[in-house]
Amino acid sequence: MPELPEVETVRAGLAPAMEGYRLTHVETRRGDLRIPFPQDFVARTQGRKITRLYRRAKYLLADLDSGETLVIHLGMSGRMSVYSHGKRRKLGNYVYDMAPDGAGTGKHDHVVFETDAPARIVFNDHRRFGLMALVDTKTLEQDKLFRAIGVEPLSEDFNTAYLARALDGKKTPIKSALLDQRTIAGLGNIYVCEALFRSHISPKKLAGAISREKLAPLVAAIKKVLKDAIAAGGSTLRDHAQATGDPGNFQHHFLVYDREGLPCKRTCKGTVKRFVQAGRSTFYCPKCQS
DNA sequence: CGAATGACCTGTGAGC
DNA sequence: TGCTCACAGGTCATTC
After folding, report:
1. A275 lies in which domain range?
2. Least buried of A44, A101, A159, A238, by fewest C-beta within 10 Å?
3. Is A173 a residue of the active site?
4. Angstrom distance (rounded) from CA A155 to CA A196
5. Is there a catalytic annotation at residue A147?
């Protein structure tokens, strides 16, 4: 599911039910996610207050009042769903439904948190590429999971100068370079395809061979497509849902992704092609991306 | 060293 | 109806 806009959308929907609240009950229902839970996961989370909920790259991070940070990655198919206790309830700008019978006991419901919002938060991930971990908050950025991660694309640190330096001399195609989390944090297959289309750059172009004049439009396109996607609640192809259960809407704004064989949305009269690059589908218009 | 490949896991939709 | 195949938002270990 989730690239930066989807994770950011989930974060925004979780915050009213988690931030500032206490985890009154924690249950792990299945331990074999991508990284198995620590044995004492419940002991280290239950009873703790969440002081801050934020995002780094495609990770959701919840600082606990114990000095540890709960790290959550949604993998390809992970969801975090919030259900209100007792009645449908508005918290912040979100309205949360009551839990249907059996919420949190499904086949792929791996973790259930109760908070004193009061709400039940269910982590569901049928492919189990996701993970939860606990790391020391003070040394989070040095942790194995984070120490090699590149800049946040929506920060001021991500600019033409940074990208020029990051791509300099790289002989890998630009598509692969942008997917590499060490270059930029949070881009995935959809938004790389969309950003390259929007800046007229072929995904096959070698990263180090992109002209200086094309870097500024690429940086701008990345920021714009991510912001627009966040505003739309992310893209729902199959699995992505917001914390309220609602789908995202940005899939209706794709210009190339998942449009194989359809006409290019520009006036070039080209046709969108799909091919496999580094094991992933790439969508592009050969006529107006070079 | 950097870059390419396949493995991890389940579900779904297309085609026969 | 039911089979088989291709494919899906990500990362990581292994190989060249």
Report:
1. 160-284
2. A101
3. no
4. 19
5. no
Nucleotide closest to A169 measured between CA and C1':
B2
* Cα dist from A135 to A91, A144, A213, A232, A284, whole Å: 29, 10, 41, 32, 40
A190 Cβ nearer than 7 Å to chain C strand: yes
A261 CB and strand B closer than 7 A: no
Judge if A30 and A94 occupy the same domain.
yes
Q: What is the pTM of this model?
A: 0.98
Greatest distance between any 2 Cα atoms in chain A: 60
Instruction: List the CATH number of the domain containing A55.
Output: 3.20.190.10
Task: Tell me: do A9 and A136 sit in the same domain.
Answer: yes
What share of chain A in percent tops pLDDT 70? 100
Based on the domain organization, do A110 and A173 belong to the same domain? no
pLDDT digits (tens, 9 = 90+) for A230-255: 999 999 999 999 999 999 999 999 99
Q: Are residues A43 and A124 in the same domain?
A: yes
Q: Which nucleotide is at minimal CA–C1' distance from A128?
A: B9
